Amino acid sequence: MLIELRYNQKELLTVRLKDDPASVKELESSGSFIPQRQLDEELRKNITMEKLKMLLDLKKPVVVVVDDQTRKTPVKEALCHLWFNFSKLGFSRNQVTILVANGTHRFMTDVEMKSKLGDFPQEFHVEQHNCYKQNSLVASKDGIPIYLNNTLLKSSNVIGIGSVLAHKFSGWSGGSKIISPGVCGYETVFLSHKRSALQEIVSPGQKQNWFRAFIDYVGRVANLKLLINFVMGASGPLSVFAGEPQKVFDQAVREAKRFLCHKLENKYDVTVVSAYPSTKDLWQTGKSFYLGDLTTRDEGHIIVVSSLEDGLGDHPKFAEFLSYDLRDLEAIIDQDSVEDPLAIVAAIAVKRITLKKRITVVTKENNIPCINIKNFEIVPTFPEKILKNRSVVILKDSYVLPVVEEGSKQ
């Protein structure tokens, strides 16, 4: 039997099984991606002067918040249509600032900026958000201080450009998530994720939850007036919506469910996941662990394939914390001496999976140490023997949202 999994954007990992599994089910994000000409037409219909006039104060500066290299959102295409309308409305280039919502991620490189933003960095003022510097306390909610980027706070005209897909902590990405955690201070990001991880159990695709309510509140505080959200598949954008933020988010989630959700009647012994397109590092690849958790029986095995070209990524302590006992992580999370407590939050979420299931990450990247701790390992070759005589579900990309109906809480 032959299994082909996307290893990264350019490379497939091909696994030839000597012994066939007992059964195999394959899932991938459905729908045809929008070709460039049609995408331009969809953006033209969604981003109009009428919407800009209705939602923005045209006399004041605009901050356009865009996602970073960890997302495949066609940002430069959306920016082209925004600027086309802005210029017709009499805007000058110095009225527009583009702010990259790095969250707690590293800054984009020049090559990544070119790929993401095209020529806009040469023609407009572009800033990259730093969660550790130049943020101000503007509000609080449920005891969590809200720190926002200082450049963002200079404008009452905030536009967000991002994508909608299933997400562990907030149920769905998209909407005001471009603001929180996108352009928030580290303390806000950490404490909101901590509360989500420790005080509620959210599954990918769960729309109503505390974290989403918190995110939406921060979006309102930040004066997010106009939102452009793409629904993405592994091959590219599937649809796009623009307008009032909450309305756009609701529309995009409905569309995402139609394209990305796949119903399953039961869980499987083994789940094999291609982490693509979230293959940059272990932190991004971790999203696939939560998808595998949805489809894998207790005592089962989750196998994730990822290139991990950036190694352990922006949170190198994450891998170290995975070696800790769950109780120890919960005990040290509030200690002032802990470096990168946000990495503890993610480690706690993953450790809860490994209490009942085993996770194996397969990567050929040489800069990743081979990790082998209880129920979690990083290895250089695909463990094909694990699939022998087992029921197997294969998630061909990390945009898929499997929904197990029988005996499930989904």
Annotate the secondary structure layout.
Blueprint: E1 2-6, E2 12-16, E3 23-27, H1 36-46, H2 49-55, E4 62-67, H3 75-88, E5 96-101, H4 110-117, H5 120-123, E6 125-128, E7 135-141, E8 144-149, H6 150-153, E9 157-164, E10 166-167, E11 171-172, H7 186-199, H8 210-221, E12 224-233, E13 236-243, H9 245-260, E14 261-264, E15 268-274, H10 282-285, H11 287-295, E16 296-305, H12 317-321, H13 326-332, H14 341-354, E17 358-362, E18 372-373, E19 376-379, E20 391-395, E21 401-404
Parallel strand pairs: 3-20, 4-5, 4-9, 5-6, 9-12, 14-21, 15-16, 15-20, 16-17, 17-19
Antiparallel strand pairs: 1-2, 7-8, 10-11, 12-13, 18-19
Helix pairs in contact: 7-14
Description of the structure:
This protein is of the alpha/beta class and 410 residues long. Helix content is 31%, strand content 28%. The chain is built from 14 helices and 21 strands. The protein has helices at 36-46, 49-55, 75-88, 110-117, 120-123, 150-153, 186-199, 210-221, 245-260, 282-285, 287-295, 317-321, 326-332, 341-354; strands spanning 2-6, 12-16, 23-27, 62-67, 96-101, 125-128, 135-141, 144-149, 157-164, 166-167, 171-172, 224-233, 236-243, 261-264, 268-274, 296-305, 358-362, 372-373, 376-379, 391-395, 401-404. The strands form six sheets. Strands 3-20-15-16-17-19-18 form a seven-stranded mixed β-sheet, covered by helices on one side. A six-stranded mixed β-sheet has the order 6-5-4-9-12-13. Strand 1 and strand 2 form a beta hairpin. It starts with a strand and ends in a 6-residue tail after the last strand. 50% of the residues are buried.
